[in-house]
Amino acid sequence: MFQEEKRIELCDCDYKGKVRNEYFFIRFGEIATYDAYKTNIYNQNMLMHYGWVVSKQTLKLAQPIYYDDLITLTTHIRKPSHVIFPRYYEIKKENHIIGECASIWTLMDLEKRKIIKPMQAGIQVPDSIPMEFEPETLFPLDDVEYVKSHQVLYSDVDINGHFNNTRYIRLACDLIPFPLFNDHFISKISINYKKELPPQSFLDLYMCRDHDFFHIEGKYDQEVCFITEMRITKI
């Protein structure tokens, strides 16, 4: 288990003072890394050779979080199975849980771009309790419509050599009509990562909407790279 306390800063917020949605996933990735070092499921010898890669996540928020709020983020490893490694997160404010996230991770050989078992990297993942809830599995829809394209450039690429998964959240949020953010917040985000997106490639973005529900897909060479579903709630 790893826990950190964070004061929300201006750079974390949108024009209404609400935390930008990718912020949570950036922090989740950071504290997962700290916890991985702490529990010996990641070490310096693995750097540039092996990496933990998230495959799907579901975040639920009970309320928006604003500038200058003090929150506590906690992560726990959950019961693993073969090459599937669950991880759970909590967001607390004033000692109340206001957010939860369930995620599934795999260990990848970064040179061969293949999923491996921990023993192949010389590590052992500890056993734990089952996950509190499962991240959603998402599927492509037939009625999505093309919206725009995005080229993967320098600032999009992370140490694993592909499009950083938090960037998908930012791109998806930018497709939601701007005025909705005046009096709504995103109360649920599910995202599945289907295929790596290489540098300098073009990602085509598609969307469909049903009232407060948004389904967004990103495709590269007609193959789905990610799917996310978001639900907005009036403040």
UniProtKB/TrEMBL annotation:
Pfam families: Acyl-ACP_TE (PF01643), Acyl-ACP_TE_C (PF20791). Residues 2-116 form the Acyl-ACP thioesterase N-terminal hotdog domain. The keyword Lipid metabolism applies. InterPro entries: Acyl-ACP_TE_C, Acyl-ACP_thioesterase_NHD, FATA/B, HotDog_dom_sf. Residues 146-204 form the Acyl-ACP thioesterase-like C-terminal domain. Keywords: Fatty acid biosynthesis, Fatty acid metabolism, Hydrolase, Lipid biosynthesis, Lipid metabolism, Transit peptide. The keyword Lipid biosynthesis applies. It comes from the Bacteria. Belongs to the acyl-ACP thioesterase family. PANTHER family: OLEOYL-ACYL CARRIER PROTEIN THIOESTERASE 1, CHLOROPLASTIC. This is Acyl-ACP thioesterase. It comes from Eggerthia catenaformis OT 569 = DSM 20559.
